[in-house]
Amino acid sequence: MSIFTNYKKIEHSSKHFKTKFELHNIPVYIANSIRRSLSSINPIVTFDDMYYEDESSRSINIKKNTSALHDQFLAHRLSLVPINMELSDCCNIKTKYNEQTGNRSFDFTDDSNKLIFTINIINNQHAVELRDKDGLISITTEHFIIKDDTGNTIPTESLFIKDIFTDEFILLDKLKFNISDPEMGEELHLECYPTVSMGKINSRNDPTGTVTYQLKVDTERIETVFTQKIAYLNKERKNKDLEDLSESEVADIKKSFNLLDRDRVFTLDSNGNPNKYELSVESIGFMNPDSIIYNTICSLILLIKDVLNSFTFTTDTCINFITNDKITISELDHSNVKNGININIKNENHTLGNMLSMMMRDLYTSDGADIELDILKYVAYKMQHPAIEEIDIIIIPNEYENSELIKYINKLLDPSVFGHDVSKQTKELEKKDSIYLITILSVLLFVKTINICTAKLLQIKKEFIDVANFSTTYENAGYEVEDPPEYFIKNADIIGNLTIITEEQQIDFTSINKPFNIKKAE
User: Fold this and answer.
1) ∠ CA 173-177-180 to the nearest 5 degrees?
2) Is the four-CA dihedral 407, 412, 413, 414 of positive or negative sign?
């Protein structure tokens, strides 16, 4: 079943600024995580208006400013300016995962070559040609002089593009002339150094203008739903010894229905859950809309791969694991719940927590829509504080004898893939207490869920490349993933099935351990 469909480019003056598409046959939590990620985890090149006492630490240095805008206001305007990342190789980005902390860093590919963006203009008699009819000089992004460390000049239009609707560069400030002294007009002198950031760090670093997201309306069911509503109302009236609704009353209800309820008749899957979503992504100039979509999907894959790589399993004598600083595993200490664990994940939020916890619920609880086996009593996540990027995923298995727990652990560690002595491991596991077994089982289920989620996202990425005819040549890389091949294959073999699954439940895991580079559109 296809996932990425109905791709459409929206253009103005032959310039692509928005992409519309639909996602089909995936649960809400994956579609919503993609929607959230479009605005939050896409690395971009920007100016940072954070003020530091040390001038060398600042991204924006305002040397002199006698204009009407005070320094803080001007710095904020500069931090909102989109720097185009696709027309030049000067702002290529690289990323790498830290095995110890579990965090991912982003920096410029050539961090030794620091770009300097300079504006140094005085509205005096020497700048008459820059004045408008009122004698003002409008300072725009066109007036930046861009040089690298070696003194080479970078074309301004390769990093700052015109607005596609106004066909003008972005206005930054205006300088007035001095009528009494031709040499002493208003002056602006600043130096800026680009940095790498993303929307989750500050909302101004969002590369999108708008991201729309809605559940797709099932037009074929609208009339049926309305008919059912009228039938229900007539039944209620009959119970109260009232006559059926008149034609005029039905007409009035139809008007209200079309205004308030029509757009809530969603397309549903066989379980009664929404399964089609309409999205659109608008660019503001950092990169092409298709690059935003592609880079976002890849960034989301890296995000969950980072969590996956935070676990290191050993099977020398018995299955065990350790974690890095990103993950903390603890037993539940509630008086009424003792047989469960809490997985604390640092530097993550609802995007990851909701997607993985809901997928685990779908796969391993009795309420699941795509259940493999009802093995868990409870799965949920929580974010302790909205301003603290840290989530807890709570996993509570059903009550089992130790022998049952061992059986499920061995099934998850498929020996044909994982490569270990099952009988030897079983003997070692029989020596462990139930808390140990519950912890191992819960963590393995969590890891398998990550692998399933990765496979789903890779399928979306592949279909997007095909549907959008997206270029993925290395020369057009949006940012480069510097992680070694081992990063992509770690823990990818924990995919054993707990029971016989249906053909519809089959997951294609063949691509989850293949390295990839993040690209951008040509």
Assistant:
1) 155
2) positive
Contact 317, 353 (CB under 8 A): no
CB 92 within 8 A of CB 479: yes
Bridge partners, 68 (sequence order):
none
- What DSSP assignment string belongs to 221-284? THHHHHHHHHHHHHHHHHHTT-PPPPHHHHHHHHHHHHHHTGGG-B-B-TTS-B-EEEEEEEE-
- What count of other Cβ atoms lies within 10 Å of the Cβ of residue 6? 13
User: Is pLDDT larger for residue 515 or for residue 105?
Assistant: 105
Helix 28-40 with 289-308: angle, nearest 10 deg = 110
The stretches of 27-174 forming alpha helices (DSSP H) are: 28-40, 71-79
Cα R_g (the chain), whole angstroms: 28
Per-residue confidence band for 114, with pLDDT thresholds at 50, 70 and 90: confident
Residue 168 has pLDDT above 70, yes or no: yes
For tokens 């519809």, the residue is 504
| Contact status, residue 343 vs residue 437, Cβ threshold 8 Å | no
Q: DSSP E strands: which ranges in 340-424?
A: 341-346, 376-383, 390-397
DSSP class per residue in 457-505:
HHHHHHHHHHHHT----GGG-SEEE---HHHHHTTTT----SS---GGG
Q: 362 near 369, Cβ under 8 Å?
A: yes
pLDDT at 178: 87
Provide the sign of the torsion angle of the four alpha carbons 154, 160, 162, 164, taken in this order. positive
Distances from the Cα of 205 to the Cαs of 82, 114, 197, 428, in angstroms? 9, 20, 6, 51
Q: What angle do CA 180, 182, 185 make, to 5 degrees?
A: 90
Residues whose CB is less than 8 angstroms from the CB of residue 220 and which lie 6 or more positions away in sequence, other chains included: none
| Residues 283, 18 contacting (CB under 8 angstroms) | yes
Residue 129 scores a pLDDT above 50: yes
Q: How far apart are CA 341 and CA 183, in angstroms?
A: 73
Rounded distance between C-alpha atoms, residue 78 and residue 59, angstroms: 10
372 exposed, middle or buried (CB, 10 Å; 0-12, 13-18, 19+)?
buried
Question: pLDDT for 304-354, tens place per residue?
Answer: 999 999 999 987 778 899 999 999 999 987 656 668 999 999 999 999 999
What pLDDT is stored for residue 476 in this prediction? Answer: 36
> What pLDDT sits at residue 426?
86
pLDDT tens for residues 255-278? 999 999 999 999 998 888 899 999
